[in-house]
């Protein structure tokens, strides 16, 4: 059954990435993407673009990563709000933040935050506030950085313990550096 094969292929790609076999993961996800395109499952295709973008970023291919994130965003942005689109914006924002492109990081985080709020996704909203906080800290606006990082912690506590720890670490790092 092709649907089962695509689902298993995607999981094999996930495992390959965790084992550091990025090329094998990307190849598996590209095969799955072809199946989902044929089924016109845009959410799955968008999410596979996100995974491929993350794999390419892990490999150091910033341009390829951005290209896949953008393809996924373009595919989903005119449709109904969905978690896959939130994750695409969120990961693009993180990439931009890590590469020093602060304006694009803020833009993508804002998009992720608005969608996450519409969907009631506290964890995604927390991560967006975390990116805002780190970017504001980087550009020297300590007050806005702290506000956003504290909001990230509040939202993360409503989400799950791992998110709360991540948010607390970001806030702690900011406080250690700035105050």
**SS element count, helices:** 9
Average pLDDT across residues?
A: 95
Fraction of residues in helices? over 70%
The residue ranges in which pLDDT falls below 50 over 5 or more consecutive positions are: none
Number of strands: 0
Overall, the morphology is: elongated
Radius of gyration: 17 Å
Q: Which series of helices and strands comes N to C?
A: HHHHHHHHH
Structural class: mainly alpha
- Report the span from N to C terminus: 58 Å
Largest sheet: none
Strand coverage percent: under 5%
Structure commentary:
The protein has helices at 2-18, 22-38, 42-59, 62-76, 83-98, 102-119, 122-138, 142-157, 161-178. With 179 residues, the chain is mainly alpha-helical.
Give me the secondary-structure topology.
Elements: H1 2-18, H2 22-38, H3 42-59, H4 62-76, H5 83-98, H6 102-119, H7 122-138, H8 142-157, H9 161-178
Helix pairs in contact: 1-2, 2-3, 3-4, 3-5, 4-5, 5-6, 5-7, 6-7, 7-8, 7-9, 8-9
Sum up the structure in keywords.
single chain; 179 residues; mainly alpha; 9 helices; 85% helix; 0% strand
Describe the structure in brief.
This protein has 179 residues and is mainly alpha-helical. It has helices at residues 2-18, 22-38, 42-59, 62-76, 83-98, 102-119, 122-138, 142-157, 161-178. The relative contact order is 0.08.
């Amino acid at each position: 059954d092709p649907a089962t094969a695509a689902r298993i292929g995607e999981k094999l790609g996930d495992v390959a990435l965790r084992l550091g076999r990025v090329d094998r993961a990307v190849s598996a996800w590209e095969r799955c993407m072809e199946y989902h395109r044929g089924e016109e499952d845009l959410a799955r295709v968008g999410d596979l673009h996100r995974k491929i973008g993350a794999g390419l970023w892990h490999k150091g291919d910033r341009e390829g990563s951005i290209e896949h994130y953008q393809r996924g965003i373009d595919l989903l942005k005119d449709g109904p709000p969905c978690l896959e689109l939130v994750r695409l914006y969120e990961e693009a924002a993180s990439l931009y933040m890590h590469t020093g492109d602060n304006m694009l990081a803020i833009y993508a985080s804002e998009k992720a935050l608005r969608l996450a709020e519409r969907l009631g996704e506290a964890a995604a909203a927390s991560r967006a506030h975390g990116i805002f906080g780190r970017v504001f800290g980087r550009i020297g606006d300590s007050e806005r950085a702290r506000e956003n990082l504290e909001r990230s912690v509040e939202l993360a506590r409503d989400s799950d313990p791992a998110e709360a720890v991540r948010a607390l670490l970001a806030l702690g790092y900011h406080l250690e550096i700035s105050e």
